[in-house]
Design goal:
Shape: elongated
Strand content: 25-35%
Largest sheet: 6 strands, antiparallel, barrel
Helix content: 25-40%
Radius of gyration: 49 Å
Low-confidence stretches: 1-46, 392-409
Mean pLDDT: 81
Distance between the termini: 85 Å
Structural class: alpha+beta
Number of helices: 4
Length: 409
Amino acid sequence: MTVRSPTPVRSLKTLPVPLTALAALALLSGCGQSADQKQGGGRRGQSGPPEVGYVVIQQTSVPIMTELAGRTTAYQSSEVRPQVSGVIHRRFFTEGALVRKGQPLYQIDPSLYRAATNQAQANLASAAANAEATRVKAERYKPLADMEAVAKQDYTDALAQARQADAAVAQNRAALDTARINLRFTTVPAPITGRIGRSLFTEGALVTTAQTDPLATIQRLDPIYVDIQQSSADLLALRRQLASGGQAPASADVRLKLEDGSDYGMTGTVEFSEVVVNEATGTVTLRARFPNPQGLLLPGMFVRATFAQSIDTSAFLIPQPAVARDPKGNATVYIVGPGNKAIQRKVIATQAVGTNWVVTSGLNPGDKVIVQGVGKTKPNIVVRPVPASKPEEIKAPTGKGRTSGQTKG
């Protein structure tokens, strides 16, 4: 019986070089993968809470801006009307031109009024002559009456006639003044300085003192008024806030946006507020005055007026990235609470100033509001708060793990 000797087992040293290299690589690969898996699992387990940046808020004074609709109105407006009746002989102005107060605009036929003036002047002369005769007669009767050469009644009558003659002189003098005024009114002057519109009557037209239409209209456009409409409810709430001391009055500077959306370059001031509410619209009119040297603003233009009616002395300025909106549209922010928990707060933020929201309710002085890392923050989770905008530091690799640690930035 033949016994076969077992096949000799070759050691790794006797294997061909390529096989030895492959075996070594496989062994190292398995060891490295196991170490990385363990290390990776350790990093995931040790990642910790998310890092967020916060700011400590304090109360400040913030002007509460209001934007309301308004319409421009001429600073002065005057309808040119005839004060005497007659036919227009001439027109002295150019339509659309700037006219000065007292400048002649129309000439009405003065013939009848000149004749009336001459007649009144003659009546005055006649009355004055009669008054002189009656005065002399009364003076002559006086010594005769004292001597009883004439009856005292005759002297009394003569004296009464002299006084009546003086009264007639005064009446005729007043009639002359009236005639002269009417004659002066045949030249129609500009009542104010401003821009005159189109003439509604031409030369040869008959005008009367009782006519409905004016001859023309003059408007003064520099400065110019802007009538702003504000809800009476908003005005009432503002007055209550001012009375309670929560807000202080602001300056009356007003800025305008024109119909094309551009800004009007000059600033106006609020002149007054009406004391009555429009029953049809429920609004109160605020009137502001603006300089208009170039005539850019014309009466009747629609504008948007922006101004500060009050100053909130206890508001907070919060960076806009810190404020979010819930599905109902309520503004919310996260603050760092006890134990570094992120607490969600509802706030009132209805106005933006630059890159900040003006928060008027929902926060307290000294709160730490999260402004960075808001997207990875959820209610009541633990966070790692650091001051906002602190630069991030990256550590050098640490040995076998080759991990990099991040310090709070």
